[in-house]
Design goal:
The protein is mostly helical and 306 residues long. The protein has two domains: 37-178, TerB-like; 192-305, no CATH class. It has twelve helices and five strands. The N and C termini lie far apart (51 Å).
Amino acid sequence: MNWRGKAIGGSIGSFFGPWGTLAGAAVGHVLVDRKQEPSEKQSLRLLAITAGALYEFARTDGPYTVKEDATIRSILSEINQRLGVALKPHELAYLIDDANRIDRSFMRLAATVRENPQLAHAAVAWLWRVAVCDAEETPAEIADINAFVRAVGLSEEEAFHAALRYRRMAAAASEDTRRAASTVLGLPYTAGAEAIKSAYRAMSLKYHPDKHADLDPDIRALTAEKFAQIKSAYDTLCGSDGVFRDGYAKRADTGSLAPAVADAVVLCFTCGQKNRLPSAERFASARCPSCQTLLVFEHDLAEHLA
């Protein structure tokens, strides 16, 4: 049996601790022993350290948000593609979901890219993308980025141009997000606070599950999701932090409602299929793979769907 891949995968998995070493060895056996290129070790290492570094950076200014999670997944998917698909989608998802277990990854990434100016510039760009994805960058995030810039040996001028570029991109993205939220509520982009509140109240009454309690379960699920979109649009326009709170799911063992808990096995509200919930930061986007219905809702919505 060829153990080269197990050794490589184990070295990457060791960032996650003893269990990660075993899992990494298994991945390495599949990816490397099956006639992969010798550079696969470096590719896997870069992906693993970057996943951990971006997660660590995202937690700098508080709770890990849905927008940060989506941005990090997008960045790692792009890196994976540029590396020649070092990991398959489900393997990349495993890496991302366990990113919080990689120790001291932020400065490990700096050490990894220090001798490669092109990669160092790219890493700074990744950090800025995470910093501005959910709001304007915070002082804590700026301090971490500056520390990273010094660690990789980039000049202050290079750091300034990176900051300027991504601040402009963040402003444009923020405007696009607000325009999309305004469209959901049927409002012009320039609508004021009172108009936003009025539209939200009117649409909430129209799509609230109470109004559709006697309809087919599939229709109820759709209206509940529409209601969730309306709530999300209102939160966007009124400054919500994007963290999903007070989520409820349908327990698989009893069929009753319970607060959503990471790794809990729950039932889909529409098709009844069993699913395992992801980490709490991803509740807002967790869907049943069979029918694409959301698995977690706020209590009132979940109660009506159940």
